[in-house]
Write a structure and sequence with these properties.
- The chain has 608 residues and is mainly alpha-helical.
- It folds into four domains: 119 residues, Potassium Channel Kv1.1, Chain A (2-Layer Sandwich), CATH 3.30.710; 214 residues, no CATH class; 95 residues; 117 residues.
- Helix content is 61%, strand content 5%.
- The protein is built from 26 helices and six strands.
- It has a four-stranded mixed β-sheet with strand order 2-1-4-3, covered by helices on one side. A two-stranded antiparallel sheet has the order 5-6.
- Strand 3 and strand 4 form a beta hairpin.
- Helix 13 runs antiparallel to helix 14.
- It comes from Physcomitrium patens.
Amino acid sequence: MAKKVGLNGWLQRVRETGEHSDVVVRVTGEEFRLHMLPLRNESGYFRDLPSSSNGIEQVDEKTGCKLVNIHHLPGGVEGFAIAVNMCYLIKPSFTVKNVALVCAAAEFLAMEDVTESARKFMHSNIFSHWRYCVNYLQNYTRIGSPVDEYVEFRCQKVLATACVKCFTEIKHVSAPSAYISGPLTAVPPKQSSSACQTLTELLVQVCSLPDIYAAEIINTLVDSDVNLNLKCRQGRNVRRWLESVIDDECQSDKARCYVLLCLSRMLLKNAPTKRPWMELSSQYWCSLLEHADQLLPLLGDPLKTEYSIGGSHLEVYRNHSYFKERLIGVKAMLEEKIGESLNEMDEYLRDYKFGPDTLMSLVEYYISMGEYTEQSLEEIAGDVDRFLWFYANECSISVDAFISLVKAFPPSARDCHDTIYGAIEKLISTAPNCSAEEQQQLWSLIDHFKLSPSVNERALNNPVFLSQPEILESVLLHHSQELAKVDDTDGRHLRHIMQKVINASLKLLEENSRRSREILELQRQYGELLGCRSQMLNPEGIVDLLGKQHHSNLSQNSSLQRESETEESEISDSPSLATVSSTVLGSGRRRLAEMFRDDMADCSSASC
């Protein structure tokens, strides 16, 4: 005697075998031999089908059963098969990969019980933890049904809530004590982790999602009540935490951009409206600006991100202008806030790696405020000078930018020019294309009297630095003062200083001669343009004028000297300083006049 089978068993058997089938359902080319009774019992779609052949219902030629064609069914064959099985009281085989397909098919077929079961599975296995939501969205393929909006909205809500909770509950934003470098891997929910590790992992995973999800979650986080200024003030290792997040954990420039934009917007949203603006949060402000400054030049190629729409896998290239425009805007706001509060920083400005343009913006904002003291201005100028040496060593600054940064401060802001002198030396040595004119502009920034004795000695042995007339005149004055202090009996020392005077005088005459020739050439060109060569200056007049000027300077220096009366035969025939200076000037004047006559003769020959 055959074993009696219950209703459940019988339904499962006829579903598997297709016996007693009275309807054939065709879904995207695949046929299912089914039964109208269980289908109409569960599905509103099948209940609404016409019951007679006069309607849209067709008949299958092979079986003689009714034929139902379902075109473009959301969820496809896989979703339809699992949804139909539940009509036959078969336990659903939900997985994370197919549950959305089943839910989409069930909604289309108006299977309320199946839809409810699918959503319960999602709540238990996807929406129950943010890590599940991250993994699900990273691999989610859009179906083209209302289920897409439901799934994405729920996942984004879970992730946004988790982000707000992490930022709210964490005591301070700081680098984790036991930090493991490299990309963070998904950790099971039951595994314990520190608050900072959880926050780091969550933030990086959210910013690594496709743009359609990451942007929405970040906007929700920014609009929340989290005050990042309060959180970062309590942490003394914020910079290291940001470096670990942006440089090490983020595996793409797109993720780095989203992290930077998110944290910057959160910080700026709750920025204080009155001083002190940064207080103890300067690490956070400056670190974000530092990373923005480094990230912007890297946005050269399209950022590639992938996601699927309508069942087809697409590659979407996010235009770099999207990130550049927002990063530039955020960077400008950070520069303004930091620049106006440079004196409030709790550490040295030179500890950060700002580019020349960014540093110039900070200095300009600070100077424009006009609320600085001499001490604070001196400290900031010292930090900027160290930046200049670093830029020069890396050859990462132009001559114009270098000069602008030096001249941004008033002369009184620097008591010592040693660092600037070293930076100029380094810049000229690392920039082979630096012209002679640019070198002169750089050396003119140095105040000879603000150099330490050791650096001053090095500067006076630098022919390019020494060629400046004002420097040579100050050197002559200095040597004259030295000579006035030398004892007449100290012949060796006296001769040494006199030689210095001679060298400086010759150098001064040569430099003035060079500049005079340049002036004469410019005057000649100007005269040719106007057709008035007769307006050119008389070279003899120029020579006499220069000679009188330098004769006056050296006469003043000579008045401070004493006549040297030697007692050794070695220096008995040595002339006095006044005689040497006069001889040097006379020789220089004759040489200068000859130079000008030769130049004028050449000009006349060329005109003829």
